[in-house]
Write a structure and sequence with these properties.
Layout lengths: L1 E8 L3 E7 L9 E8 H8 L3 E8 L4 H4 L8 E6 L2 E8 L4 H9 L6 E5 L18 E14 L2 E6 L9 E8 L7
């Protein structure tokens, strides 16, 4: 089990962060998706969200490297090609977000605009608010060419189904 955090400004791109310890500000995986936060929220309203990330296995430098080292991914959100995701290092902004959310073990919410920057005046625009969802995810390693993260609903009832798949496959690259 790992801690997964999905976050982003309302009008900005979504970030997916995987941590083994919620108190750490150094993620084991950090990806910036091409999907806007508003679009992701809209997709999640249906209750089922599948994000598949495929890398090009025909590039010699990516054919054998660990999946978490792949720098660029083709993204499919619920079966539709959505653009390209990039692996990122946690910069000051991401570390600040993770530090702010240390006390959140599971949940979703909004962090006001300017929070933690010393600039919070209560007048920030809604597009600057940071939306987040943090939960436990089951991490499954299928092979050297596939990993997945599946949201674990805390109440064990019907709820959001969300999965992120990392795949080294040439099958969807020509779509």
């Amino acid at each position: 089990m790992v801690i997964g955090t999905i976050f982003g400004n309302r009008g900005g791109h979504v970030w997916f962060c995987v941590q083994h310890d919620r108190l750490s500000t150094k993620p084991s995986l950090l990806l910036e998706f091409p999907i806007s936060t508003n679009d992701l929220v809209r997709e999640m309203r249906n209750g089922l969200l599948r994000i598949a990330l495929e890398c090009n296995p025909h590039r010699p430098d990516l054919a054998r490297c660990p999946l978490r080292s792949v720098p660029v991914w083709t993204v499919f959100c619920n079966g539709r090609k959505s653009g390209f995701a990039a692996r990122r290092r946690a910069g000051e902004r991401v570390r600040s977000v993770l530090k702010t959310m240390r006390c959140v073990s599971v949940g979703a919410g909004v962090i006001p605009a300017g929070f933690g920057s010393g600039q919070h005046s209560g007048k920030g625009s809604r597009s600057e608010e940071l939306m987040y969802m943090r939960a436990n995810f089951e991490h499954v390693v299928g092979s050297a060419d596939s990993e997945s993260f599946h949201l674990i609903n805390p109440d064990e009832g019907p709820g959001q189904e969300l999965s992120v798949f990392l795949l080294r496959s040439g099958l969807g690259l020509d779509r």
